[in-house]
Specification:
single chain, alpha+beta, 4-stranded antiparallel sheet, 10 strands, DNA-binding
Amino acid sequence: MPELPEVETVVRALNAALLGRSIAKAVFLGKVRVPFDATEATRALRGRSITGVRRRAKYIVVDFDCDAALLAHLGMTGFFHIESASSPYEKHDRIAFLLTDGEELRYADARRFGFVRLARVSEPAGWPGELSFLGVEPLGRSFTGNYLHERAKGRKTPVKVFIMDQEIVVGVGNIYASEALFAAGVDPRRPAGSLTPGEWKRIAAEIKGVLRYAIKMGGSTIKNYRAVDGTEGAFQRVLKIYGKKAGTCPVCGAGVETVRLGGRSTFFCPSCQA
DNA sequence: ATATTCCCCTGGAAGC
DNA sequence: TGCTTCCAGGGGAATA
């Protein structure tokens, strides 16, 4: 569920909630796919002050006043919540960070696709080395129609799969890819290499637009996504095409079509998206 | 190198 | 009501 707007919403909340606080102890509760070494994490982070929480792509980085950091990905169903350390664990809590003030930061994940792990930030404001493969941030200046056009040359991959490729542009998942292509009026099945510079310009602009709007709305809650304080996002209420199986196009009234691209459900209007 | 398929998990919704 | 089937926003590995 969490794509860039959801992760951004979580990161802003975590940053506000955790800034200046410190960890007393990490506790591994089990049942994750990437094992978490709580002993090592405790040794590296104990007593260190949290200096910020940042986002890169769909990854979350918690910085401390040392070169150790926490690197997290929410996968499909991961979420953080902060509770009193004396409150009982929830069913899917996987990792807990006891804070020195008696509260606890907890990571929960029903489907276990996400992870939290210890990472290194070698230079100030740098990113953990594991993230070096990532493409450009869609809300950054270097993300333009021209950039997409250049990277797409010769590529036969459907344009929707292409804009979801994290090595090209990060943070765009299944929901926002469908929404952005609908807004840009481009058929998601078209080979990426066949698009014109003008179409790429529209796509870049619509990706930025839909992501900014979704951040403003606190993300989309389709099934599982919850913010740190437990509240739901609101963007699912303004989705125009995603999930509208058996629905009609809000612009022209044509029946919405569904197709599987890259193994994922894709929604589009056969009339508006050429 | 690029494209496609499969798989990791659990839970909720829909179908029978 | 209860059992079965299908589906899910992510990402990475394995396969053509």
